[in-house]
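Usage example:
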Amino acid sequence: DAGVIQSPRHEVTEMGQEVTLRCKPISGHDYLFWYRQTMMRGLELLIYFNNNVPIDDSGMPEDRFSAKMPNASFSTLKIQPSEPRDSAVYFCASGQAGLTYEQYFGPGTRLTVT
Amino acid sequence: RKEVEQDPGPFNVPEGATVAFNCTYSNSASQSFFWYRQDCRKEPKLLMSVYSSGNEDGRFTAQLNRASQYISLLIRDSKLSDSATYLCVVNGDNAGNMLTFGGGTRLMVKP
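Running the assembly step on the lines above writes:
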């Protein structure tokens, strides 16, 4: 079975550029989570969706960040414009209703903004 | 104050040793507790849930002390393959969908 798929795996971009991260959750999972991990702040929840609807985006750092889930099999996290402090590993995870404590993480996208 | 606090380590132990990690959480209303494991440059994966009565899974034992808001993980007979970062996790909302992760404790098991 395919797990959570994320692309790209690595992204290097210059400050001010737009960055789009992509995620395909596990089929049948109705929850999708976006996290960011840095050495300083650890793993932080940015936003999560249930049945494609954003439920809590209180972790989104600022208006430069936006996330969408147009259908059950695809989500994007966009940063526009990007800044060096956005450099981190961004994980997407999915889970099932009633079992959302067991979240299946994708391999992550390592973002470097220069 | 962080919602979930852990000693970052690293804990350097020889193979076969017993090692324990602790974690404290600040939200007394938290209902569910877990340990996740994260290998170097990999994604986190669920290791085990933590039940009020304590629970064991092979060489791993998890304990919860609600009064002290304290969670522990004990690893017996450490293996080289146990080397990883162990993340203490607490559910962060009433619905139980949001997880709050601690910063992790790094374990290095040496031959």
